[in-house]
Amino acid sequence: MAPSAIPTQDVDLTAANIQVKEATQPTKPSSNGTTPAPLDASKLIYNLTKDPRPVPGEEVANASDQTICTDHMLTATWSASEGWGAPEIKPYGPLSLMPTASVLHYATECFEGLKAYRGYDGKLRVFRPDCNCARMHMSAGRISLPLFEPAELEKLIIALLGVDGPRWLPKNEPGRYLYIRPTLIGTQSQLGVQAPREALLYIIVTYMPRLDSPPGGMRLHTSPEDMVRAWVGGFGYAKVGANYGPSLAATSEARTRGYHQILWLYGKDGECTEAGASNFFVVWKRRDGKTELITAPLDDKLILDGVTRRSILELARERLSDELEVTERKYTIDEVIEADAEGRLVESFAAGTAYFVCPVSAIHHRGKDINIPMGPEGTPNVITSKIKTWVGDIMYGNVDHPWGVVIPERE
Amino acid sequence: MAPSAIPTQDVDLTAANIQVKEATQPTKPSSNGTTPAPLDASKLIYNLTKDPRPVPGEEVANASDQTICTDHMLTATWSASEGWGAPEIKPYGPLSLMPTASVLHYATECFEGLKAYRGYDGKLRVFRPDCNCARMHMSAGRISLPLFEPAELEKLIIALLGVDGPRWLPKNEPGRYLYIRPTLIGTQSQLGVQAPREALLYIIVTYMPRLDSPPGGMRLHTSPEDMVRAWVGGFGYAKVGANYGPSLAATSEARTRGYHQILWLYGKDGECTEAGASNFFVVWKRRDGKTELITAPLDDKLILDGVTRRSILELARERLSDELEVTERKYTIDEVIEADAEGRLVESFAAGTAYFVCPVSAIHHRGKDINIPMGPEGTPNVITSKIKTWVGDIMYGNVDHPWGVVIPERE
């Protein structure tokens, strides 16, 4: 068959092209001819609680095996025919789902995680929420959930924080934070294996105890030789539930052995990818004598494009270029072991929203222990400390920076 | 380091060993020293509806975009400290879940699908429910959900069908069926990425319109070159939600192009694995002149160990050994294309609980159309027909066979 005789569609069915098609089609035309409504933050309805709950202290929050949420949540329903309904801020409470709901069977779910920080200047900030909202849009497309304009999601997050921020993050307690979890789930009551035609977006704000690095640093165990977290052609780059549940068995087992997280290796050479659900960084001296900050690349879509990861790379390139080179490339556990054996390992850390910038003190790999230099008395080492301070200063308003977005609060 | 100095734990952290550990530990010892209760069908509580709903006709069921369920569902809660609560049969209705529930974020969910058949002898049967219950036990372990004795789950399925079978599958309408969906979800209200310490098992029974093969046979489109359904070291063999949501984008796209399902290929050679969510079979003449029924193997854990697949292989080996060889091995799309070019393609079908045994008439692969012989007027071809008849005869009680388990009905 001559190439010209190949129908265009044949060369088109690729993941990349499906994604482009999704991304450029924020509201799919409905079968009934009407245009479904886009997500619209200007339609937001406030239905505030008359019965606000007491804000727990850290001890209470630490002792609970349930996540404590603030007084309100934001919800917006979607259907294929009508599009997005008006978003609503309402009292926090349970969701009612039919037992046949798509999300409970087919993992049609994606989420984001970001924090709101009470600054040392008394202001409330979120860190680069545009990045999270753009990523949630991408994740939604990958898992066949409805799309939306990322900027509208950002407005909704800010509106919800404006309501619950003042009471749950008091101005006189700078340095505290709340964790925000935008979530999108397929709600259609339909067991057919198909993209759901009904969905629910919700945003909850949770009160987290101050989660600091484990004393003495994070200890990692490399992943089981016969277990893979994500794979080329899969969905490791998307924040979808399907990346998390299947990883829990290995993590539980690592914890019973005294490790905090799994360092997920990929491929027969054991490329270092993610540490638990965080991005993973190593600082080492190369054999040419140059110091290097290295982390796995995004190009094969194995790992999450972390907002903290991206910010660290940008700041390090801007501020540390005199002392080190910043590299995104594949590197293997054997390279880390060699660097350790040759005394070239400088430091290592995991980075993500939940654990922020967390020094790694040890990696266990098939009978070998790699010990990684820490600062004095279990503190983060020099480079890790610098990076943690720089990012933290933006989050808590110690410096003025466009990444720290100030939230207008309803008093 | 001498081999003897390697601590035992180092060689132990493998997926295979985690699975063995899970499987041999049906009730994990609780941290408070008590032994959590096992799942126990003898504790079943009946709380029957006083308001049974009308049983819809096929037209109503076909027209609805919601799955229609029977009058009752069965639920059993689990917590890490208490174990399994008493199972309860109660009126079908919505579930109440906290927005922080594990299943909504981390895809801590698995399920099964099986059918109840109203036989031509008036009896109600399920087909090899022991296989489904054993598989659900395996899936639960893989996704860090609580374990149970598979035989107890089977008793619960039978009890629920005993209640709703008589009215929803009337004795005077042989040949009809209901679809049963046992589901297990992580319900703990906890955003920490960890195995849930609370879960809910539920069983629902759905009224499905008679789902027959698409007229003219099923048309498959091979998967996007840059998209992979499951991978070695992953969880393609488990019936967990995480295998389904990520596959919907490619399936939707194939449907808009006029195909019914994706034929998922694996690896650089394009091994044929599954067709949609069904197992995939080809009958061809080998170059040595022998006829062969071929399907992908289970050993690399890429595909689901389908109950229909297994039954077909067993029956074909028992009854067709004079006319063909039954083979489970890796085979590629190029082998199928070659067989087509050389006129050696005999027939092909997809097999699973939902679509039963469904003839495949066409496969589209990167600009090439493979047309597969069907029977006259779009009916299944000879081998496909034989197999379909044999399995169907067991399901509907036309023959007496240990795979057809009769359900005692409450009249």
From TrEMBL, chains A, B:
Catalytic activity, as annotated: L-valine + 2-oxoglutarate = 3-methyl-2-oxobutanoate + L-glutamate; L-isoleucine + 2-oxoglutarate = (S)-3-methyl-2-oxopentanoate + L-glutamate; L-leucine + 2-oxoglutarate = 4-methyl-2-oxopentanoate + L-glutamate
Keywords: Amino-acid biosynthesis, Aminotransferase, Branched-chain amino acid biosynthesis, Pyridoxal phosphate, Transferase
GO molecular function: transaminase activity
Gene3D superfamilies in the record: 3.30.470.10, D-amino Acid Aminotransferase, subunit A, domain 2
Named cofactor requirement(s): pyridoxal 5'-phosphate
Compositional bias ranges of the Polar residues kind: 22-35
Start and end residues of each stretch annotated as Disordered: 20-39
EC numbers for this chain: 2.6.1.42
PROSITE patterns: AA_TRANSFER_CLASS_4
Entries under PANTHER family matching the protein: BRANCHED-CHAIN-AMINO-ACID AMINOTRANSFERASE, SUBGROUP IIII AMINOTRANSFERASE
Family: Belongs to the class-IV pyridoxal-phosphate-dependent aminotransferase family.
Name of the molecule in the record: Branched-chain-amino-acid aminotransferase
Originating organism: Trichoderma ghanense
Phylogenetic placement of the source organism: Eukaryota, Fungi, Dikarya, Ascomycota, Pezizomycotina
